[in-house]
Amino acid sequence: MSLSATLGALALTVSAPESCARELVVLGAGQDAGAPQIGNADDTGPRLLPSSIAVIDRENGQRFLFDATPAITEQLVVLDRIEPPKNGLGIDGVFLTHAHIGHYLGLAYLGREAAGASKVPVFAMPRMVKFLRENAPWSQLHTLDNIAVTELEADGLAPVSDVFGVFPITVPHRDEFSETVGFLIMTPEKRALYVPDLDSWDEFAEAGGGTLSDLIGGVDYAFIDATFWDDNELKGRDMSAIPHPRVTGTMDRLADLPDSERAKVHFIHYNHTNPIREPDSAESKEVAERGFNIARRGMRMCLSD
Ligand SMILES: [Zn+2]
Ligand SMILES: [Zn+2]
């Protein structure tokens, strides 16, 4: 199927909640490198785009992106078909989790060789902002005013409009170039959690972040790291030293929560090797049977009553 046919089919399969003032859209649910991953020409499984979500605020005519992935061009087409831009690119804020390829490379498409955008608001943590200011090609986005960066504070509410704000949550991760955060997405009626990438929920708790159950208790939807299914996934490799919560481990950790709490969980950022990539796999069925959900590209959730 051609790209435009794929996108057309996708736009038709998603429902349109007409009365929804604010809406969340899943633009990608894969790990940074997507799928097929480079060098895997024989991979015939479902295509994955890197993890990203969008929030549409129809009252204010605004659209926000969480993470700027290497597939941003295609992901914005999907968003445009759901809610066309008001002006230009129609991106009123890009919230960056960290400086790994799946989460920020898409910023390059705001620059001179592509959109030549003007002052797209970008929100990031202090080390991430410094990294973008001091390293090419990102520094050129500053000097040409393609982006306008706002520095976020760790664990503090950042109001963006009267009905939309974010609360960055610092998480443990491989922080070579930037710190890593997840986001609490705050609207007057609903909250969502987006933590696509972290090393471990135990390390998060030990650092004072609290438990995953508590985080889920404070939101309506939780999009959380599902990079790997279990420790047998990467054939021939000892996975004990490879970070990321396993989907099986996260489900065990949350097994005693009530149905309504488990139903908030949407696994995201899955690796090309993770069997939940296949909607019909035994593992995907197990996730559903245990009361959890898997984020899929094109999913839409209303954030207003
Ligand atoms: Zn990632
Ligand atoms: Zn990462």
Q: Total number of helical segments?
A: 10
CATH topology: Metallo-beta-lactamase, Chain A
**Number of folding domains?**
1
| Strand arrangement, major sheet | 6-5-4-3-2-1-14
Structural notes for this entry:
With 305 residues, the chain is an alpha/beta fold. The protein has 10 helices and 14 strands. The protein has a 7-stranded mixed β-sheet with strand order 6-5-4-3-2-1-14. The chain has a 7-stranded mixed β-sheet with strand order 7-8-9-10-11-12-13, with helices on one face. The radius of gyration is 18 Å and the shape is globular. Mean pLDDT is 94; it is low at 1-14. Bound molecules: zinc ion (ZN) (2 copies). One zinc ion (ZN) binds next to helix 3.
List the helices and strands and how they pair.
Blueprint (H helix, E strand, L loop, with lengths): L2 H11 L8 E7 L23 E6 L4 E5 L5 H11 L10 E3 L5 H4 L15 E5 L1 H9 L3 H6 L3 E5 L6 E4 L2 E7 L10 E6 L4 E5 L5 H6 L5 H6 L3 E5 L21 H7 L5 H4 L2 E4 L13 H8 L3 E2 L5 E3 L3
Parallel strand pairs: 3-4, 4-5, 5-6, 10-11, 11-12, 12-13
Antiparallel strand pairs: 1-2, 1-14, 2-3, 7-8, 8-9, 9-10
The structure holds zinc ion (ZN) (2 copies).
The site of one zinc ion has 4 residues, from loops.
